[in-house]
Amino acid sequence: xxxxxxxxxxxxxxxxxxxxxxxxxxxxxxxxxxxxxxxxxxxxxxxxxxxxxxxxxxxxxxxxxxxxxxxxxxxxxxxxxxxxxxxxxxxxxxxxxxxxxxxxxxx
Amino acid sequence: xxxxxxxxxxxxxxxxxxxxxxxxxxxxxxxxxxxxxxxxxxxxxxxxxxxxxxxxxxxxxxxxxxxxxxxxxxxxxxxxxxxxxxxxxxxxxxxxxxxxxxxxxxxxxxxxxxxx
Lengths: 107, 116
What we know:
Chain A is an all-beta fold. Chain A has strands at about 5, 10-15, 20-25, 30-40, 45-50, 55, 60-65, 70-75, 85-90, 95, 100-105.
């Protein structure tokens, strides 16, 4: 079983749609949680940190449930430029990445 | 550009050759991480340094792999006697401890290795 598991997708959605990604992590000692975005053949870039209280950054909302070891990302009003792979991350010092969820936003 | 830099960006080598990659972290960052990423997977942790001390190594890091950060600034990752299975993107990231909140790692552009 992978330490961080997420649905690989792809999620194909029209512009303006709301899309939700979920992931689970197995190491209860994890202390840091993030969503990274990765474009094809590029390095991962931090999208947002994830906190138990939930946090929002514009169209993006992230949520952490420590009890069920579950992390989510909600994207509202999808844009074409949101097309990418979204990597769920849990860790303590070293980061453990999921394999990524691919999102394709079409006109 | 004050981000993480990596050199070379691409490397093609023949099986059995040695290769060395370099990473220059963000200047004020005391932690430096190496990850490896293969197609369709997320990055996998290899090792990390705090200043010049190597604090953790993954079991993925076989005896053919060695990493150094001699002066606590740039780091090198060497792979000896390369194998075709070493073909991957090698990513370096850096971060700063003691800033409060979650420690954020910033990634370099990676070195893409192809072993023929």
